[in-house]
Amino acid sequence: MINFNRFLRFLLPALLAAAGLSAAPPDEKPLLGFGRAPAAEQRALEARFDAQLRADNLRDWMKRLTARPHHVGSPYGKENAEFIASQFKSWGYDTSIEEFRVLFPTPKSRLLEMTAPTSFKASLAEPPLKEDATSGQTDEQLPVYNAYSVDGDVAGELVYVNFGIPKDYEELERRGIDVKGKIVIARYYGSWRGIKPKVAAEHGAIGCIIYSDPHEDGYFQGDVYPKGAFRNPRGAQRGSVADMPLYPGDPLTPGIGATEDAKRLPIKDAPTLTKIPVLPISYEDALPLLQAMSGPVAPESWRGSLPITYHLGPGSAKVRLKLEFDWKLVPCYNVIARLAGSERPNQWVLRGNHHDAWVNGADDPISGLVTVMEEARAIGELAKTGWRPRRTLVFCAWDGEEPGLLGSTEWVEAHAAELKEHAVAYVNSDSNSRGFLRVSGSHSLERLVNQAAFDVTDPQKKITVAERLRAFRLTRGSAEEQKEARDRAEFRIGALGSGSDYTAFLDHLGVASLDLRFGGESGGGSYHSIYDSFDHYTRFGDPGFEYGISLVQTAGRIVLRLANAESLPFEFTASADAIGGYAREVAKLADDLREETEKRNRLIREGRYEAAADPRETFIVPKPHEAVPYLNFAPLQNAVSRLKHGAQEHDQARRAIDLSGKAAAEVDVILFRSERALAGDGLPRRPWFKHLIYAPGFYTGYGVKTLPGVREAIEERKWPEAAAQIEATSAAIERYAAQIEKATELLKAPSKN
Ligand SMILES: [Zn+2]
């Protein structure tokens, strides 16, 4: 029989602790990396931090920073950088503007016209609206274009390629449609936009038009601007089309900082520029083109929400696309503000958000930037009372994010050696709006994120932002998310691919990184258009800046705890769990592909495709694939098993040991450098990407590929490469496990004090 008193007092906490849970109510739960009394001190500090926060600051700064267009290289972009720097200085930070020189082409001329069956000239313009005060600043607005498209003057028949990703071309091939010598028209979404011209060019297309279909981005989603938040018929999406999955940053200086005297590639040799001209257009401009197309009717899942029958082409519709750019170098101004740490000044906690926009950029990026500023201001106020963070804080306001993560990538490349040595973690944000907490990043920080999220109150529902996220996942998540939200005490954070300024820190250097923001309830539609304005944001984004304050509170806690903890708040159980999951996924991917290949080859052999095809339509029987071999995943499984064991032992040890009596600094260095162990020599065909656990997909761009080397080799049926990548990835996980084991040994060693 169980002695219930004993069970409750001793056994239950031990069981829960082993499961990574705790029986203590949240307010008594010691914060990771703090002993019990210092945890109380830390909470007192955070209460003082919260007491500083003013939503009006967010509103005032947004008004100021979005008053004029401020893309990289623009006069107002420079004014903004100087304003941000002056603010940081006034709050007591040691502040500088670090300048780089980056390639930033802007249009000299743009022409898109249909020459047959009728003539039509695309307007390529977003009209000013009387309801939107800054939308009429046409002199300073960048026109609608895709940055790093090459110059070109091409004419040809149109082919509709859906999202323009590799599997869409397989579908076209089965219908006997070839894009060679044609101009493709693709809709936005389904991949990062730069993938569309990349894949089109690989298939022989000579030009690429990308349009916003109202199905994904317009009236199908909700009322359009200015009545509602969504994209109106003439709204269009600017954006970069550089081949960022190859490397982000300045196209002319891969791997090195784009300083004044940096050695640059000739523009014609820059591999990340597109191979064909590309232009984004609105759905009002796209409608006549799509309407004029002939050829087979598009498959059902390819159809958008325009009032037409979608045809694939080629044939009747012919267009001319003529683009010419000014290929200039422009200054890129990063604002870097430091507050030196009192005890471990050589350990840097970095926090950043970009300041440049495509146009006025209230949502993207100013809604995030103003929260970072408020965070820095409140910390500056604490510092004025004599408090100092234990570690050095570095606040960064990046320039040139929009064209290709230019400012952050160049800064990271220029400071790579120091950052490898000193960077504890990088915490990023970008756009922020009403809704749910969204966090992705290094899983070694998952527990830290959870502890912060359970301490912040959701402004609308008055429950913690963590519980609100749980409610979202329980009611609207996938089946797996629902199950986890029930069974797991803490929420899982997502894996980071690319898409904002954490990329160089995480993927190139192996600095543990987080990206966090609120969102999901604001209604999009202004993204990268002239309507991403103060007026739009304060109606639809986060009118009272309440979620701005929630972000300051959440990120502020994460940053303050990283900066102040006696021993860095890294834990590894979640990391081992996540990596174990990725390893299972790639093994399953190979099995599924084997099964699918066998099935398909059999259907081809038996002539079933041919028998089922409509004789009045073109159908080309697909070619059989080579059978999928059995890969040896044992090294990966062994590495994961070692990591799981080591992680559990480490996390238990650090909870059991009073860290204040330890030489915590020594453990710290191992902890924060552990993420570096997951970086290797670089991924096949793109060595800039070093991290072997996370990368943007080579053919998806923003969607993260976990265990990218292994996963992409399998997806692309490159078997020797898959085997080599299993070895390289396993070795990285073994190195990571070894670091964690070393930290545990130090933790358990008799106190040196
Ligand atoms: Zn952004």
Low-confidence stretches: 1-26
Strand content: 15-25%
- Summarize model confidence as the mean pLDDT: 94
Q: Given the helix and strand composition, which structural class is it?
A: alpha/beta
Largest beta sheet: strand ordering: 1-11-13-12-14-16-15
Measure the end-to-end span: 45 Å
Total beta-strand segments: 18
Question: What's the overall geometry?
Answer: globular
Query: How large is the radius of gyration?
Result: 27 Å
Bound molecules: zinc ion
Helix percent reads 40-55%
Major pleated sheet: 7 strands, mixed
- Count of DSSP-assigned helices: 24
Tags for this model:
single chain, 753 residues, alpha/beta, seven-stranded mixed sheet, 18 strands, globular, disordered N terminus, binds zinc ion
Detailed description of the structure:
The protein contains 24 helices and 18 strands. It has 753 residues and is an alpha/beta fold. It has a 7-stranded mixed beta sheet with strand order 1-11-13-12-14-16-15, sandwiched between helices. A 7-stranded mixed beta sheet has the order 3-2-10-5-6-7-9. Strands 4-8 form a two-stranded parallel sheet. Bound molecules: zinc ion. Zinc ion binds at residues 354, 364-365, 401, 430-431, 500.
